[in-house]
Write a structure and sequence with these properties.
about 270 residues; alpha/beta; Rossmann fold; five-stranded mixed barrel; 6 helices; purine-nucleoside phosphorylase activity; Nucleoside_phosphorylase_sf
Length: about 270
C-alpha cells in the first residue's frame, strides 16, 4: 500500500495539490460547499492512480483543492462506501492520501437517519462518539503497522476542541446542533423496525452507512477529526413508512446551508 500511496501523492502534487491544511469529506446530498471554495485545481477520481471510483449516482467523483475561509483545503466531492463492493482499505484510501499531502485536520459530513426521536429531520447532529457495525476494521490488514500504530486508541476519536467550537458557532448562528452517537452499518438496504429498536437500545442517536472507517483511519494517522450528520429522516419503528431516497437527498439539501455555515466558520478559526 505504501507504494500505491506514494504514486498517488506524486500524481496529485504534480497536478498542483500542494500542502493542504484541512481535508473535507462531503456526504450524500452535501456538495454545495464546493461553491464556497476558490478552486485552484481538481482531479476526477477515475484519473487518480489507485483511487476507487464513486458508483453512487448522487455522489460526485472529484478531489478538489483550493482556498476556503483563508485556508488551503482538499475536498472529497463524493465518498466511497462498503456497500459499493469496496474494501474498508479502499474506502479509507483517500484519507491516507490527504494525510500524506499534509492535512492536519479532517472534517466529515454525512446524511443519517435519526434514531433519537427528539431529533427531527432537517436538523444537524455533531458526532461525539460512534458504534462500528460494519463487521470489520480498516486497520485489519497485514502491514498496517508501517502506516501507524496498529492498536489505535479510540477513547476520544472526535476532537473535543473542534466540537466545542462547532457548538459555539451553532449557538451564535441560531443553528439547532444536537450532539450524539452515530452508528455505522453496511447497507445499502435501510433498516427494519427491529433493527431500529436494536440501535436505540445499544445507544445510537443516528445511523448511516459511512464515516466510521474514515474516522478510525484519521485517528490511526493522528489527524484531528470532527463530523456532522445531516438528519434526513426519522427512524420511528412504531410509525415506519417506506423511505424515498429522493426525499432524503432533498432534506440534505435543505439542511446544507447550516452545515456550510458551521464548516466555513470553523475553518476560519483553525
Amino acid at each position: 500500500m505504501l507504494k500505491y500511496i506514494n504514486e498517488t501523492v506524486e500524481y496529485l502534487q504534480e497536478k498542483g495539490f500542494e500542502s493542504p491544511e484541512i481535508g473535507i469529506i462531503l456526504g450524500t446530498g452535501l456538495g454545495q460547499l464546493i461553491n464556497e471554495i476558490d478552486i485552484l485545481v481538481e482531479a476526477s477520481y477515475n484519473h487518480i492512480p489507485y483511487f476507487p471510483t464513486a458508483t453512487v449516482e448522487f455522489h460526485k467523483g472529484k478531489l478538489v483543492y483550493g482556498n476556503l475561509a483563508g485556508k488551503k483545503v482538499i475536498v472529497m466531492q463524493g465518498r466511497f462506501h462498503l456497500y459499493e463492493g469496496y474494501t474498508l482499505q479502499d474506502v479509507t484510501y483517500p484519507v491516507r492520501i490527504m494525510e500524506k499531502l499534509g492535512i492536519k485536520t479532517l472534517l466529515v459530513s454525512n446524511a443519517a437517519g435519526a434514531i433519537n426521536l427528539n431529533f427531527k429531520k432537517g436538523e444537524l447532529m455533531l458526532i461525539e462518539d460512534h458504534i462500528n457495525l460494519q463487521g470489520s476494521s480498516p486497520l485489519a490488514f497485514n502491514g498496517v503497522e508501517h502506516l501507524g500504530e496498529r492498536f489505535t486508541d479510540m477513547s476520544a476519536p472526535y476532537d473535543k476542541g473542534i466540537n466545542s467550537t462547532f457548538k459555539t458557532i451553532a449557538k451564535n448562528n441560531n443553528i439547532e446542533l444536537h450532539e450524539g452517537v452515530y452508528a455505522s452499518v453496511v447497507g445499502p438496504q435501510l433498516e427494519t423496525r427491529a433493527e431500529y429498536r436494536m440501535l436505540k437500545i445499544i445507544g445510537a442517536d443516528a445511523v448511516g452507512m459511512s464515516t466510521v472507517p474514515e474516522i478510525i483511519v484519521a485517528n490511526h494517522l493522528n489527524i484531528k477529526v470532527a463530523a456532522v450528520s445531516v438528519l434526513t429522516d426519522e427512524c420511528d419503528p412504531d410509525n415506519l413508512k417506506p423511505v424515498d431516497i429522493s426525499e432524503i437527498i432533498a432534506m440534505a439539501a435543505k439542511a446544507e446551508p447550516n452545515m456550510i455555515t458551521l464548516f466555513k466558520e470553523l475553518i476560519s478559526t483553525l
